[in-house]
Give the backbone structure.
Amino acid sequence: MKCEHCTRKECSKKTKTDDQENVSVDAPSPAQDNGEKGEFHKLADAKVFLSDCLACDNCVTVEEGAQLSQQSTKDFFHILNLNKKCDTSKHQVLVVSVCPQSLPYFAAKFNLSVIDASRRLCGFLKSLGVHYVFDTTIAADFSILESQKEFVRRYHQHSEERRALPMLTSACPGWVRYAERVLGSPLTPHLCTAKSPQQVMGSLVKDYFARQQNLPPEKIFHVVVAPCYDKKLEALRDGVSTGLNGARGTDCVLTSGEVAQIMEQSDLSVKDSAVDTLFGDLKEVAVWRHDGVSSDGHLAHVFRHAAKELFGEHVEEITYRALRNKDFHEVTLEKNGEVLLRFAAAYGFRNIQNMVLKLKKGKFPYHFVEVLACPRGCLNGRGQAQTEDGHADRALLRQMEGIYADIPIRPPESSAHVQELYQEWLEGTESPKVQEVLHRTYQSSEPCTDSLDIKW
């Protein structure tokens, strides 16, 4: 048998135990090993099943399965309880970063505005014992800006380098893992090298923020609240570090649904609190998002930047044309009847598979593709947009999409803090440090031939 997103005939991840439907990574936590019964122990009962993630077949190794046991509420509560003990040598500064695609879930779940949901979530986390709560939008700014520059470079190179285009986005860990582990070397050169927002946020917290606080990276425990389970696998990725000190950028990922479960089970008294920033005492009340057909934003911003830099065209409104289905959109820049740029957004594995087949046959006409593993984008991550019986919660998703669409848009170029960080943290926009901290390389493997013959 195979899981719903598997591209091979047999999924080994579902055959490693006799319980085919419940391959759980809910291994004993350090708190259990030590017999620890902290005040949060009663809340730590959420389980994560490998069937909930989009990485399929042999993508999850035995070692990764063991490490995934630490990507849970139990490990989070273990740190909280250690911080409440007298041995200060074991205390860590607990930092939580919240993805912007998670906020509409909390707003819908608790019937609040996005700003109020952000403040409620921040206040709850701090009532647990979290020291700082950040928004990852600034990390997405860096990811988009670096993707913009890389696309322009690739466009100039594509006449000499066949695999420079199309450039495929790399912000979705489910898609990237699938490309690396299943599709292999024919596809990985097309992946954008800019790090994902989660990876950039890890560098910001474990390097920039750590130095601002005069703390070694190992004294910070960094948790990310995200809409999907694949972010847990991304946190384990080999070589995911700040690029400067060897520390892993993200220590634990909790899905929005896991955090909501903790909130619902808690009887703590909560006082709303403004989200922190990386810049001292400054509090940023506003919530921003990036432009786009869904919840990612790379396509719209890269398209505008490329149109201006390559052809001197200023694009205000972007027209998305849905083609074969509602999860495959096309955007073109035309002048005098000639198509100058052809971009696409491909969401869900069915569209990804069609894209891969056409790319291998040399019949793929696009310069750039925004690729997301989840149909309808990140808001539909399985860590937040599903019912208790595991099915997609369509009504909740529609509500979240409406909430997200109402969030004001801020172009990444307009952020003064981003420009400040480029100069103070990264020593300039084109420095070697930018390449070291904000970019990555990919694992290269032989592609699985079976995976390209599936009929969707």
User: Anything to note?
Assistant: The CA atoms of residues 184 and 446 lie 5 Å apart. Confidence is low (pLDDT under 50) at residues 1-58, 449-456.
